[in-house]
Amino acid sequence: MTTNVIEKTTLAWPNSIREEFEKNQLNGRVGTRLLSETNRVRVWEIRLAPGERIGFHRHVLDYFWTAVTPGRARSHMEDGSVVEAVYAVGDTRHFSYGAGEYKIHDLENIGDADLWFTTVEFLDSANEPLKVYAEA
């Protein structure tokens, strides 16, 4: 995976993106489809067609994601930065959050083919799981 920061302030975000960011501060829906949930894990699929995006959501649980397909994406991050990334099949990243720590971002497919990830959240993390909104 390669990344490039293209913006560093929310002032560059369109109004619709800033408004959605404010509205979805506590959205725990970190994928487009919840595939499985047990008392230990939530397994998510993120599948985005070209130009499609998953809206802002908050990560509070330890988790990892794996790219199932190659592709390109753009994310608006809670610190105001906009990051573009290129993914290869099998790229995997792990994240861990201490009590009170989190990350908020969105994800948009800016490539020309479907972008697909599998994400696994660990429910026994330092933070309580967030409510999963009906729609991301």
UniProtKB/TrEMBL annotation:
Gene3D superfamilies reported in the protein's UniProt record: Jelly Rolls
Protein name: Cupin
Organism: Bradyrhizobium jicamae
